[in-house]
User: Fold this.
Amino acid sequence: MKPLVFGEVLFDTFPDGKKILGGAPFNVAWNLHKFGMKPVFVSCIGDDEDGNTVIRTMESAGMNTSSVKVLQDYPTGRVSVGFRNSQPEYTIEENQAYDYIEPAVSVDAAPVICHGTLALRTDFNRDSLYSMKALSGAPTFVDLNLRDPHWNEELIKSVLGLSTYVKMSEEELTVSAKLSGIETGNILKTARQLFDNYNLSVLYITSGEEGAFAVTESDMYMEKPDGAIEIEDTVGAGDAFTSVAVMGMLKGWSMESILRRAVQFSAGVCTIRGATTESIEFYDYYLRGWND
Assistant:
């Protein structure tokens, strides 16, 4: 099973000058790879030192780099990360290499196409993604990443209308519901109506320290974290959740197991600096508990 992950790869730069390789789709692909899922990551980098670092890092980890293209005219993506009340804030540069991603050469065997919304800020990328969807016929898993000003009403409605599985935060649920003319007084009713409006298979809603819940055709599932954790930062927590949700869907886990494990891993990522780690032990810790 080789899930196809489409979207940005970039460097998060922190106030202390530290740079961490990231980008929501890259984080998802990295986590999936560390969990043994062999994803195909589709993106673009610049012909620069940051781009070289991306390739070296992926190759060192044993990841597939065949669908990461090098562009001469655009730099490898960068984002400045700041914090307010322990929550990350992002300054996202434009005209980056990941804004011009070409379709993967072969997509017909992809069991799922996973992507976010930031990379879809360009017509070029929307055309690339939609062509891959049409060619593959694979179900799609979208993780809404509403980063102002890089989205609009038309984009969100289009993405939701073409998706099979959707993950979003409570805040993004409120925004999506209002754009779709859905009342937002009761979060559970709002999620159910959004699910029905777009004919989804699963809708995941993350609620930070409160955990997450999932809406399916027949039921609704809720999961809270096991207990208090020592938070380093919350960068990549949503990407961690998406990674496990995608893996669980491909492995045929029950919805209860997917939700519980996604919340567990998301909380675990909050205990490390940044969205990912090269530590094999970190991922093995969770895999050992998910052997059923």
